[in-house]
Amino acid sequence: MRPQTHSLQGFRSSVNSTVGFSPLTFSSSRTYLITLAPTPSETRMLVGPIAQGWTLNRPLIIVIEVDDDGTYLVSDDEFAVYGEGVNREEATHDYVVSLIEYFQLLESRAKQHVPTAVLFDRLRSVLSRTEPARTGVARLAV
For residue 96, what is the enclosing H or E element? Predict the structure, then answer.
């Protein structure tokens, strides 16, 4: 069962009542990965600031899997973005880099192409800049 609200307060109470976690304390300056259900692939929720200058406006569900060769893959079903790495942290960082690059690509082309503008509006409702545009993506504190 997913939270019905996108506010952190609603998310917190929904997780506590639905999954049975003890109360959670959230800080606005950290990225949180919260396990939703134990499955062969790990389903987690990415919440809050994800890189320097970038924040999620609502929780984003990601899936962490291990490929046959031991490579970790992190993906989402909402935007079809993925990242890979030798461990969860590296794969999550690569996913965040890919998500931000996808945002920047859509942003640069949204004015010339209506379907791209629709995709960009959807992504912008989830991901936003908290600082003016800069190059590079900071490492995650996961």
Answer: helix 88-109
Count each helix (H run) and each strand (E run) in the chain, helices first.
3, 8
Q: Are 95 and 140 a contacting pair, CB within 8 Å?
A: no
How far is Cα of residue 35 from the mean position of the Cα atoms in its chain? Answer: 13
**pLDDT tier, 121 (very low <50, low <70, confident <90, very high otherwise):** very high
CA 102 to each of CA 26, 28, 106, 124: distance values in angstroms, whole numbers, following the listed order: 27, 24, 6, 11
- pLDDT tens, 93-116? 999 999 999 999 999 999 999 999
Q: Is 87 helix (H, G, I), strand (E, B) or coil?
A: coil
- Is 59:50 a contact under the CB 8 Å cutoff? no
Nearest alpha carbon to residue 142 among 101, 91, 79: 91
| Three state DSSP letters for 8-24 | HHHHHHHHHHHHCCCCC
Q: Considering the entire predicted model, what is its pTM?
A: 0.67
Q: How confident is the model at residue 68 (pLDDT cuts 50, 70, 90)?
A: confident
Phi first, then psi, for residue 124 (nearest 5°) are -65, -25
